[in-house]
């Protein structure tokens, strides 16, 4: 991987090495690295015609196709930061994110609707999409510390929070992973996840940093394990990024249907605790040719923090796997309640420092000051740390284990979800007196969001409608249950453990 100071420079160096290699494939066709660069620069010039200067935020609202990386690269080349606005999100949430981020233009493939911001709309495809505007000035230089994107995550107050991440943080991620994976221009990656999910940052730039081909997976295909398995074989995918719960279904389908074997060399897990049985099913279907990696990461620390290559003997076990060791360039420390590092065998909150730590929360100075802190820890240079809110165990062998959360934030299907945000939304429904949202387990063993509420009558349909109208799909509870009262712990707080044990 070539060194660079910003993401456009990194891409250009790759495009100069492999101009005729296919960079991206999707339902609309494919683009070589040279073609992708040309289209992105054309769009970058059009952005600058509408929005002179640099440092603005530009919304991207596109279906999953080859034009997503075109738009991402164009915004970055124009000297601005992109804000992903998933077209499948409710209009109200899109409107909030666009207004909160103060997006000044929108790259879109759909007509304006009630939730789209009243800013210039720029098409990403069309007959003139590859034409550079006449007399266009050179594109601006981009500094390492400039924001590259703002991705919104769940907020406990009902207000999503935008995480601003710099170019240098993404480059630090790529550098940190360089010694973990043997990736080159012959590999084929998938952009499997929504570009509103930070896994997509790794998927795009992990491919582009090495001259690999990126296959953009249509949302309908990604939702179908059968179609996904076929796509992996048809496209010759070698690097697959997955949330463990999604992979378990994928591996079970593969085991039961015996499809053509894809040439997957690396499966990279993130977003949830990893248990072995999905990997065993994959082995049973396709043999031992795939290496599995358990990664831990946070949007606020640019996708990944630690890595653990799963040993063969662990695949045959039943224990949840460790999250491993910090990537090169990252520093992790487990601290007690007084911010003192715990000894081996101890547990506490996991703090993360390094260039990959994000710039902070957009328009949230108090929250930024609370979570991004300057600390002078024993035997360490003073540094800026991110308080993850995750509880970790520092094993005697130096490996880290993830033990859960300090707060009510949960991780489900790869997303970090503040259940308080869902509760705030549901509490707006008429007739709801109290509400609590937890992760429950179905009789089939699947983890799902469940809303327990107190009301004088059954409001399941009302609450479901409220959730669908205001929350992204991954935050909409699957189950709803009316109670006469929420159970309380001895301290008088809602007993979430008791709710988690109730049947779904």
Question: In words, what does this structure look like?
Answer:
With 504 residues, this protein is an alpha/beta fold. Among the domains are: 328-405, Luciferase, Domain 3 (Luciferase, domain 3, Roll); 409-501, ANL, C-terminal domain (GMP Synthetase, Chain A, domain 3, 2-Layer Sandwich), CATH 3.30.300. 29% of the residues lie in helices and 26% in strands. The strands form seven sheets. It has a five-stranded mixed sheet. Strands 16, 17, 19, 20 and 21 form a five-stranded antiparallel sheet that branches. A four-stranded mixed sheet has the order 2-1-10-9. β22 and β23 (415-418) form a beta hairpin. This is Amino acid adenylation domain-containing protein. Residues 11-362 form the AMP-dependent synthetase/ligase domain. One of its GO terms (cellular component) is cytosol. One of its GO terms (molecular function) is phosphopantetheine binding. One of its GO terms (biological process) is amino acid activation for nonribosomal peptide biosynthetic process.
